[in-house]
Amino acid sequence: MKGLVVCPQPRAADVGAEILSAGGNAFDAAVATAFAQMIADPFMCGVGGMGSFQYYVAATGENGMIDFHATSGAKVTPDMWQADMKGRTEVSGYTLFDDYRSELGYTSIMTPGTVAGFAEAHRRLGSRPWAELLQPAIRMAREGFAMTPYVRDFWSRKFMDGIPDGMTRITKTDACRDIFVHPEGRLYEVGEILKNPDYGDTLETIATEGAESFYRGALGDRIAGDLSANGSYVTDEDLATYTPSSYAPVKGTYRGFGVSSNPPPGSGVTLIQMLQILEHFDLGALHHGSAAHIDLVARAMAAAHADRNAFLADPNFADVPVEMMLSKDRAAEWAEKIKQGEFLGDGKEGPPSCTTHLSVYDEVGNAVSCTHTLGTGSGVVTPGLGFVYNNSMKLFDPIPGNSNSIAPGKARTTGMVPTMVFREDGSPLMIVGAPGGSVIISAVLQTILNVIDFGMSPVEAVTVSRIHCEGAAIHAEARLQDAEMKVLEAMGHEVKRNAISFDPVMSRGHVIVVDEDGSWNGGADPRGGGGVAYAR
C-alpha cells in the first residue's frame, strides 16, 4: 500500500488516497484532502478559516508546525464590546449579545489563514502541482456532493441557549441562503445533491493564480471590498500582509514515547501536560471505564485546564510559560495533589466548537496531522464567491486586560491539538487529532491512552466510551456504566450523563497507528462521519 488517509468526511479521504495512489506524498494528499473537506463539510472548514498543520519528513526526521491562525482585524479595539455583553452561555466561553455580533455576520470574522497555510505546506513539502491538488475539490463543488448526516445534523440540532440555530446561521446573508437552503425553502435532506459552482470558481482562481490571489489581486479585492462595505473589522491591509507561522512543535514524553503537538495559542501544551500528569499512575492496571480510571483521567484534565485558563494566549501578545507547563516538575505537582484527593480545576468550561481534522501517512513514512476550522461559520458569503467565512471573534474575551482579550492582529486561543507520538528511534507511532473545540484535547488524550495504556486498536481507541472534564462536571456518554458513575458521584464528582451513546459533542478522534513491523491502520470516530481510505 502507498499510504492512508483518515478524516471525518469519507469522500475527502478518498481524494487523499487517490493522490497517494497517483504518486503524491503525504503532504500532497493532505492538501488535496483538506480542500475536498471544505466542500463536503462547508461549515466546519473552508478557505475563510484557520488551522494548524504538523508534519514529519521521514527522509530527514524533520518535525515541524505550520500554523495559520486567524487574526483579528486592524479595526478592533479591546473594549469595543465590553458594555454590550449580555452574559455567557451555560458553559462559559461563548459571549452573548442581543445581535449575535460575535457569532454571526461580518463583525464575527477574523483574517483568514487557511489558503496561505496550505500553500506554505505545499511550497515546502509538496511534490505534485498546486493546481492539480485543488482539482478534486473544484469538481466536487461544481458537480455537487451528497448531503451527509453530520452536516444536516449541524444545521438542525438544538444549540445552547443564546446560540442561533442552523437555519438562522445559513440564512444570515442572502448569498449564504442561496447556496445552502434548498430551492423549496427547507434544509437539504441526507443524500440530496448540493452544488456550489461559485466555490468551484473561487478555488479555480486560487489554483491557477496561486494562493496569493486570495489575499491580493482581483479575488482579494472582491473579498476586501465586501468585508469593508459591511462592517467587518478586517481590512485590505490585514489580508495583504497575512502570513502563516512556522516553528518547532512543543514536545514532551509519555511512558517512553515522544509526544509532539502545537504551540500556543493552540493547546498542545495542555495535552502534553495531561499525559505527563497521568504518567504518575498505572492506568493500564485499571479497568477501562471504571470509576477509578475515569477519576484519574478527569482530575488530570481538570488540572491541565486550570493552567490553560490561567496562562494560554497568543505568545505575540502575552508571556506564556510554556516551559513551566511542559515541565515534569509541574506534572508531578499536579499528580501529588491528585494522590492527596484534591478536587482540581477552576470550574470553568469551554464551549464545544466545530472543526475538522485529517491524518495522513505514506509508504515512505511521511506524516501529517492537521486540524482546520471555520469556528462554526459566520453565515457570511461574499456574493459570487461561494465560501463561508470564520466566526472566530466569538472566542475572544470582550473584557480588556485578560490574556485572551481582543487586540488588533491577535490570534485567539484554540483547542486544536494536531499531534504525533514517536518511538524511541524517532519513527511515528501515532498520527492523531480531532475536531470540536476544547473537547478536542479530551478526545486526543483518551485516544493516546487507549492505544498505549490499554493496547487498543485504532478503531477501538476512537470508538470506546469517552468523558470530558475541564474542572467542573465530568461529562459522560450514555454507554458508561451507571454503577461506575454512581461511584464517581460518591467520590464527590458531579457527573453529567448524556443520553447519547455516540455523542458528537465529545469530539471525533481520527488516528493512524504504525505497528512495529511497519504496517499501519487507521481509526475514524463513528460519532460523526468517518473516512478511512487506503491507497494501493
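the 2nd protein, sequnce then structure:
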Amino acid sequence: MPSTIGRLAARLPALALLLGLLCAPSAPAQDTDNLLPVTEAYKLSADAATPGVLKLHWTIAPDYYLYRGRMKFKGGDGVTLGEAQLPDGEKHHDEYLGDVETYHHGVDASIPYTVAAGTTRLAVSVQYQGCHEVEPKICYPPHTEKLDLPLPAAAGAPATPAAGNALGAALDRLGSNAGTTAAGAPLPAEQAFRFEALAQGPKQLLLRWTMPKGYYLYRDQTTLKLADAAGLTLHPAWPAGTAHHDEHYGDVTVYFDQVELPVTVDGDLAGRMRLALQASFQGCQDGGLCYPLMTRTVDIDLNGGAATSGTPAPELPPADLAGGPLQVSLLAALLLALGGGLVLNLMPCVLPVLSIKAVSVLESGENRATARRHALFYTAGVLSSFAALGLGILALRAAGHAMGWGSQLQQPLLVGALACVMLAVGLSMSGVVQFGASLGNTGANLANRSGPVGDFFTGVLAVVVASPCTAPFMGSALAYAFAAPMLSALLVFLALGVGLALPFLAVGFVPALARLLPKPGRWMETLKQVLAFPMYLTAAWLVWVLANQRGADAVGLVLVAMVLLAMTLWWFERSRSRGAPGKLMVAVLALATLVPLYLLAQVPPPSAAAVAEEGVVAYSPQKLAELRAAGTPVFVDMTADWCVTCKANEHAVLGTQAFRDLLQRTGAVYMKGDWTDVNPTISAFLQQYHSPGVPLYVVFPKNGGPGKQLSTVLTRSMIERALTEAAR
C-alpha cells in the first residue's frame, strides 16, 4: 500500500546510515561521534500558559534542519488538538522525500486544543524528524517526545470561592501586581469587560461581553437577576467555552474575546415595555490580575433597543442580529423548516435518491393503494431519520458538545460507506443485480420497486444525502433548533422532514396529481437505467470528498472496497441457483469488502499542509484579530468540500473575477476556513455565530465593529453591498 511505501521511504535515510556504519572503514565511522543526540540537535520547549493554545519552539543546532512535513501532533486522554499553525519553511528537493520544506536555527508552532471535562493535564505526543546537512550527512529516524503539562490556571485568581474573600484577594493582588506582570498594565474594568444587552423578542434577551485580547470571563461567577420583576425568571443558555483549570475555583469554563448569551424570560410580562437587568460577573487578565466582582445594571427596551454598560459600543446593525438563535418564534421556525425541506427536493444532493422513488411512483401509478403505501413508508423513513438526527444533536448539546448540519460527512468511514451504497444502488438500477425479498429486511433493497422496507430506507438515505445541502429558509430554522428547548427543536426537525417528504405525500394522496404522471410501460426500464448514472456521479463526488479528507491512501482503499462490492453483487446474482457453496462465496466477498473500509477508518489526515489558494488567507483567530486591529475589512468564508451549497456559492459568486475585483476595490481580505474534516477552531467560530453548520459568511468592517452575518445563499449584489459598507 502507498502508506507502507511512505513509511519505508521515511526510514531510508536511517537505513542508509546504518549500512554505512557497518560497511565503511573505521576512520569515516568515527566522524559520526561528533553528531549530537536528537534531543540536543533539536531542543523542544513547550508553553501552555495561554488557555486553549499550546505553543512549541524548537531550537535547531547549526548544520541541522527539521522537516516541516514530518511533524505530527497527537492529543492524549481528554485532549483534542486542532490544526497546527506552522510557518512556511525553506523549499528544496530531497532525494528521499521529494519536494519538502525545512527549518533551520529555530521554528515555532501553535496548536489550538480543547479538553474534556475533568481533564487536569495537557498530554500531547510530538513527533518530528530532521537531518545533519554536512558530512557526515545522515538523517535521524522519526523521534517522538511525550509532553505532560499542567493546564493553565488563572494567574492570581481570588483566594477563595467566597465573594467577600475573593474581593479582598483581588484588591490585594491589584496593589501587589500592578506594573510587575508580563501581561502589561491592566485596563479599567469598564474597558476590559464591556457589557451590553438587548431584546430580540418579548421574552428573548441577548447579553454580550466583549473583552480585549488577553482577558477572559468566568462563566460560573456570573449571576443575573431582574429588579422589580416579581414572577419573572431568567434562563440563560451558555454557549460552549474554554475549559480552564483554576488554582482556586478548580475546573471552570471561561470565555475569551467575546461571548453572546441568549436568555429566556419566563413569566407574565403583563404589558411591560422595559426590564431592569442586573448582571454580576468576574474576569481576569491572562497572566495578570483578577478583577473584583463587577455589577452592571442595564435598562432593556423590550421593543428591541440595545442597552450598554461600560465603554460605549457602536450601534448594532439589525442584520447583525440575524445570527441570534431564537430571534424567530416557534411558528415561524416551523414554517421556515417546512419550506426549507420542500426546497431540498430540488437540490443536487437529493435528486439522485429521489430518482429511485420516481421510478417506484410511476410503476405503481395504476394502483392508488400502492401509491399511498409508497408515500407513507417513504415519509416514515424521512421523519424517523430527522427525529434521530434531532435527538442526537440534543444529546450532544446536553453533554456540552456540538454537532453541525452535515458534519457527519466529516467522518471518512461514513463517506466511504455512502460511496459504496450509491454504487450498489446504481448497479441495481443498471440491472447488474436484482435484490429479492430475502434481502429486504437487511435494508439492501433500497431500490426495490414494491417493498415497504425499501421505501422506508430510501427515505433514510434521502435524509443522509440531504445533509450537505442547505436550502433557502433553512438557516434560521436550524439555528433555532440548535438552541431551542428539546420539544421545540424536535418539532423543527420533523417539519424539515415533512417538507422533504411532501411531494411524494401529495402524489400518493391526491389523485389529480397522480394522473399527471405518465403511465407505466416498457420505457420504465430504460428510464431506471438512465437514472443510475446520477448515483454513480454521487459516488464519484463522495470519493473526491474523501480525497480531500484523507488523501490518496483513503481513495485507494475505498476504490478497492467498491470493486469488491461490485464483485459481491455480481456473484450474488450468479449464485441464485448454485446452492450453499455459491452463497458462502457471497458471504466471503461481502466480508472482504468490509476490510478496506476498516482500514480506511485508520488512515490519518495528510500531514502536509494544503496548498493555499491565490488571494485567500487561511482562517485562524490570531490572523483575524491581527487584520481587524490593523483596520482591514475581512470577509470570512466557512466552507467544506461536502457542502453543496458552499460549492454553488463559490461557482456563482466567490470564484468569479467580479468578486476578486471587489476585494481589490474595497481593500478587503478573503479569509477561508475549511470544515471538511473535524476542526475545533472552526467549530468554535460557528458556535460564536450560532450557525448550525456551513456555509457561514461573516463580514467584519474596518472600523472594528461587530461582524455582519450574511445569508447562506449568496448573490453578487449582497456581497458588494456588505463589503462596500465594511470598507467605509
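The chain has 21 helices and 29 strands. The radius of gyration is 30 Å.
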